[in-house]
Design brief:
By secondary structure, the chain is mainly α. The chain is 20% helix and 6% strand.
Length: 71
């Protein structure tokens, strides 16, 4: 259980989309709502903050630190 809550590395299957969710972990997309997943662990039920991928107004840049350019 500790490895799921405090992972050193997130598991990822090469060639598949990243997904960090209540039911499945496969890496993490840049716009995944990671706190929502941690709240789901704490409550042991799917938990939503109402923040979705569509809530992100600017896509992350393709280079580190992935912060989008200012508008």
């Amino acid at each position: 259980m500790v490895d799921a809550i405090l992972p050193n590395l997130l598991p990822y299957t090469i060639g598949t989309p990243g997904c960090l969710g209540f039911a499945e972990w496969n890496g993490r997309a840049m716009t995944d709502n990671a706190p929502e997943v941690m709240f789901s662990f704490a409550t042991n039920t799917p938990f939503t903050l109402g923040i979705t991928k569509e809530s992100v107004t600017s896509n992350p840049s393709r280079t580190f630190p992935y912060v989008p350019a200012a508008s």
